[in-house]
């Protein structure tokens, strides 16, 4: 049986804090959740199933298909075990697709530099292909073709096909990223964490490059985020069927709706941010569904019915200056107090001291990581009496 049909373990990775949302997504797609880790979920399926996972999952970074688990306690043993795998059946030895990249995570006291492991594993693969086919594929750091991932802990190495290639956060619509943009996968997790429903208005002041508003539109339409990309690691594994891929894409396209059930509003004080956000939304095919306005946060118009407001203000790690930002956060508090009536307000920030300046009591605090930065998604319930709460603080 080819691996395109053979069931194996699949590791679906995500940023820290995102596992609960990824879990819901995996279950909704009908895949089992076998095991939960801090930054990944283990499920199972065939290599063909990874097409579905790559296409539909919004909160994952990579979809890794387990090829083999090998006993290996030294780099020499890793080379020998990996060299014994039938790589010539998996990877192209010639032509434009004959290129591979090896990545690794190593937790083995005898190894201090993972680059050494990458080279050893890569040599094992290309030497094998050269011995069997007389030709060897090129290799390097680019992840736009075949990617092999090795997870080596103590005397056990797990060898995966990285079916995503480039990480899935790179949806391809953010041509103009601006400063401090949020990863697309994290933005999707933030939206899910708010419990927002597609028929509710979603308001995103301080929208920056528009990631939150764009991800909201994609979720509201049920449009698979992977439809925006046309290059994945699985395409470089022998036996890849473009017909099956096109069918999988078509099924996903047919499921999406065209009309937005609710309203999405994105505003920013910076004109160039709004221009970039609109352009990014256009690349994603959702610009006509988002109302963009250049205005300071407090001037953002809020629709009558109840809904969700999400802000990702600067938090001083990469942009802005703390003193000025204190005023910005106070301004958000005033804006929330004015909003009142049935809205839930959310601030995603990596600076809790600044968050205190909002002056409202938080209802919920969710820990999420933006890269290495521990952040919080803070929930505020906004109602006519919000002002009273601020006095209680
Ligand atoms: C961290 S960025 C948002 C990044 C965004 N989530 C993304 O993915 O690109 C913060 C944004 O807040 C905007 N901003 C700062 N102060 C503001 C204010 N008082 N009113 C409105 N926007 C403001 C900045 O122009 C910047 O675009």
Structure description:
With 393 residues, the chain is α/β, with parallel strands linked by helices. The protein folds into two domains: 8-162, VC0802-like (2-Layer Sandwich); 184-222 and 256-392, Vaccinia Virus protein VP39 (Rossmann fold, 3-Layer(aba) Sandwich), CATH 3.40.50. Helices cover 33% and strands 23% of the residues. It is built from eleven helices and 15 strands. The strands form two sheets. An eight-stranded mixed sheet has the order 2-3-1-4-8-7-5-6. It has a seven-stranded mixed sheet with strand order 11-10-9-12-13-15-14, covered by helices on one side. Strand 2 (35-36) and strand 3 form a beta hairpin. Helix 5 (184-194) packs across helix 6 (211-221). The chain is elongated, with a radius of gyration of 23 Å. The model is unreliable at 386-393 (pLDDT under 50).
Quick structural overview:
The chain is an alpha/beta fold. Helices cover 33% and strands 23% of the residues.
Key terms for this structure?
eight-stranded mixed β-sheet, binds S-adenosylmethionine, single chain, 2 domains, Rossmann fold, seven-stranded mixed β-sheet, VC0802-like, 393 residues
């Amino acid at each position: 049986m080819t691996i395109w049909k053979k069931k194996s373990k699949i590791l679906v990775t995500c940023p820290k804090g995102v596992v609960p949302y990824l879990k819901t997504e995996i279950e909704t797609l009908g895949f089992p959740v076998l095991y939960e880790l801090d930054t990944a979920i283990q499920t199972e399926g065939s290599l063909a199933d990874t097409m579905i996972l790559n296409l539909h999952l919004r909160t994952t970074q990579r979809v890794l298909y387990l090829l083999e688990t090998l006993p290996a306690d030294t780099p020499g043993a890793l080379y020998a075990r990996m060299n014994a795998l039938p790589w010539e059946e998996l990877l192209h030895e010639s032509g434009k697709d004959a290129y591979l990249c090896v990545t690794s995570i190593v937790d083995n006291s005898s190894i201090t530099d993972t680059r050494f492991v990458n080279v050893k594993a890569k040599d094992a693969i290309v030497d094998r292909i050269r011995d069997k086919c007389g030709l060897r594929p090129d290799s390097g750091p680019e992840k736009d073709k075949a990617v092999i991932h090795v997870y080596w802990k103590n005397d056990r190495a797990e060898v995966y096909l990285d079916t995503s290639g480039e990480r899935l956060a790179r949806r391809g619509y953010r041509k103009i990223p601006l400063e401090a943009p949020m990863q697309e996968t994290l933005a999707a997790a933030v939206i899910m964490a708010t419990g927002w429903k597609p028929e509710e208005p979603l308001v995103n002041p301080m929208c920056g490059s528009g990631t939150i508003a764009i991800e909201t539109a994609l979720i509201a339409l049920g449009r698979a985020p992977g439809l925006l990309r046309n290059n994945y690691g699985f395409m470089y594994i022998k036996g890849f069927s473009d017909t099956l891929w096109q069918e999988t894409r078509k099924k996903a396209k047919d499921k999406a709706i065209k009309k937005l059930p609710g309203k999405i509003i994105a505003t920013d004080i910076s004109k160039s941010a709004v221009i970039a956000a609109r352009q990014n939304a256009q690349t994603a095919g959702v610009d006509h569904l988002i109302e963009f306005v250049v205005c300071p946060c407090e001037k953002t118009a809020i629709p009558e019915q109840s809904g969700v407001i999400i802000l990702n203000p600067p938090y001083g790690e990469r942009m802005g200056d703390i003193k000025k930002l204190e005023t910005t956060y106070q301004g958000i508090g005033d804006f929330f107090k004015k909003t009142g009536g049935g809205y839930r307000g959310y601030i995603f920030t990596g600076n809790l001291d600044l968050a205190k300046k909002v002056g409202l009591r938080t209802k919920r605090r969710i820990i999420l990581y933006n890269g290495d930065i521990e952040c919080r998604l803070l929930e505020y319930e906004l109602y006519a009496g919000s002002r009273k709460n601020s006095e209680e603080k």
